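Final paragraph of the annual report: two paired records, presented back to back.
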Amino acid sequence: MKKPIGKAKRKAIDTDTKSWVKVSHYSPTQPSPLLIKPAFDNVDIVAWAEKNSEYVETLLLENRALLFRGFNVPDYAIFEKFIMATSDKKLLEYKDRTTPRDKKSSGIYSSTIHPADQTIELHNEGTYWKRWPLKLYFYSKTTPNSGGETPIADTRKVYQRIPEDIRQTFAEKKIALVRNFNDGFGLTWQEVFQSTDKNEVESYCQENDIQCHWKDDGRLRTVQIREAIQHHPQTDEPTWFNHTAFFHWSSLKEPMKSLLIEEYGIDGLPYNVTYGDGDAIEESVVAIIRQAYQDERLQFPWQPGDIMLLDNMSMAHSRNPFEGERQVLVAMTNAYPEQTT
């Protein structure tokens, strides 16, 4: 008895869906991000991802940064379906945030709202949270006239570039993110914690190992002591996973740096980092860390419909200045460490 032709064809397609895409280095001189493009017209990126989620996991672990380009991704609804096909399906919320964002839907946000003529420095997402995302997604909806790239850097290699004595000091002392809210500059605690209820904020801080102190007139000061170095949960590789170079007062640009320090003092800045014991982190040390990031920096121009998936513990990201309209959406999944009951 002959097998139904239709069923045989479907089986052949289902077992060979890896061939729907072409995988290559981004360029001969830049291996990362790994470039994944359709092998023929009209490849459905969501259908492909649903059939090849394990393959995506393998590619991500091998390369830590994947760029999906040339697929039909006209809106963030397709972006969200792709996320669901390649993650644990649990989109994370931006709470305890340090920058303003617009929320597009549950777990889908605009990239950081920041003046177009300024750079956002390299950082991993959520290093100061108790639980951070393992996966970070970007979707390029609208590309600017110029600039606006999202440079990346491998923080495993950043770690290796930092002298051993500096790494040892941070491993022993940890770091402390110090924030002052509602002093007249920076985000309010109401926006950061997405609440106007002081009791709710205190509960959140207690649950997330954040020291909080209410000052006069409803102002708030918080301190978050965190590890500076983390180990990847799948490979145990050490990675430089902190916001030291990003939040240290020396990273502020002039004339804003001088104005803020004159007004608030270093201890009263909207945000700053110290060693975990409260000692100041030396400017010379921060300069070395900052240079290590720059030495590993890679970038590419966005194209409309691009999706980039980063292993957030291995890849830092940033943003270049731009001209024109730029719309990049972001999402976070796969919270780590896993919550225990």
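The closing record of the year follows.
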Amino acid sequence: MQVYRQTGDKKYLAPIPRALAYLKKSELPAGRLARFYELPTNRPLYFNKQYELVETADDLPTHYAFLVRSNVDRLERDYDKLLATPPARLRPAKKTPKYEMSDALTAATRQAIDGQDERGAWVEEGRLRAADPEGNVRQIITTQTFIENVDTLSRFLAAV
């Protein structure tokens, strides 16, 4: 739908009815969706607190969203609204901000690149509190560091 808003080309709306039908078929009670579904049965799959693959949601870890809010109804309303809006009246998303090259951005980019291990991962000291209560794991990858570094690299590429 975002690409259609940008381009006005209805070909980008073509797969949406099938996607909405799939999401509706996949909805669980209370307007939720499982994070994972088995192919081709479409049964919801979960991991319990021992990280065993299970088919029930009664013993889920609390640090990961194995169940998410569906939002299918909102998506369908957005789709219907787009269909009713003439392409000339679409409001494209705001343009991506321009990034200026600077010594600080160059230094941050160099630091992000140099901070990668041989696999290209940003590994740092830390603990896995839930998955490793004994504290045996000392080297971890954090989402926060990943996000910060990818943001830095993206801003550098946009500036170039």
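The longest helix spans residues 143-159. This concludes the annual technical report; the extension proposal builds directly on these records.
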